[in-house]
Amino acid sequence: MVIIGELINTSRPAIREAVEKRDAEYIKSVALDQTKSGANYIDVNCGTMVNDEEEVMAWLVNTVQEVVETPLCIDSPNEKALEVGLALCKNGQPMINSISDERDRFDAVLPLVLKYKAKIIALCMDETGVPTTADERIRVAKNLYAKLTAAGVPEGDIHFDPLVKPISVVNNAGIEVLESIKLLKAMYPNTHFACGLSNISFGLPNRKILNRLFVVQTMTLGMDGYILNPTDKGMMGIIYASNALLAKDDYCSKYLMAFRNGLYE
Ligand code: THG
Hints:
Blueprint (H helix, E strand, L loop, with lengths): L1 E4 L7 H8 L3 H13 L4 E4 L8 H13 L6 E4 L3 H10 L6 E7 L1 H13 L3 E8 L7 H17 L7 E4 L11 H15 L4 E2 L1 E2 L10 H15 L3 E4 L4 H13 L7 H8 L5
Parallel strand pairs: 1-2, 1-9, 2-3, 3-4, 4-5, 5-6, 6-7, 8-9
Helix pairs in contact: 3-4, 4-5, 6-7, 7-8, 8-9, 9-10
The protein binds (6S)-5,6,7,8-tetrahydrofolate (THG).
């Protein structure tokens, strides 16, 4: 299971404010909280800072790496900002968020994946947009798998993101993702997944209950990576428990260890 901590994102008002004031202490505290909570990667996203995204990316990456050794997930729609962040990563193998099968995006991001030997989140979308059905997602994933592995990217470094849409907008968004996981898992058992979990509940009340149930449903079909808030102890408890119940935790040792360390409720 790969937990990618989502909290360092300038779309969150507290982070935006800290970035504007260059309040390094606040950024460091958020990075440290996520690492202490069990994050395996720290996502760094300053995509809302359209005028100085590259400079902010560099500052955030350096600031985070002053306090944690957790590897980073560099998250940007802008390939220049991706490269700035990747060039500064020193906490082990970085992750790039993300590539897609849109031609320009693919051609711009593939060289970065190879240069930095990065793990790569591969969005199941292409020029025609974000798919609505599982079959369309599989079609895109097949193309991405073929092109990435042909270029020399190890299968195990590929994390497919089926792209989770809100069920408040797309009624069958949840089941199409479940079906996609089932099919992709059978086709490419050595690849991984990563998705933005909370998208599922956007626009609805009591989002926690939807996010927590969707984590269990997706894990049951083989989802093994999430971009989420790792300081949510209720969510983390459900993930540790679900992992143990799915026989992915020998002797329940991770469940026990995390309990002893107070990592979940
Ligand atoms: N797929 C991929 N990358 C992504 C997304 C995806 N990157 C961006 C986004 N979606 C995932 N990141 C976030 C970051 C913050 C929040 C949601 C998604 C967010 N957090 C809560 C807030 O600010 O209120 C805090 C957490 C909480 O209360 O639990 O909204 O889909 N590849």
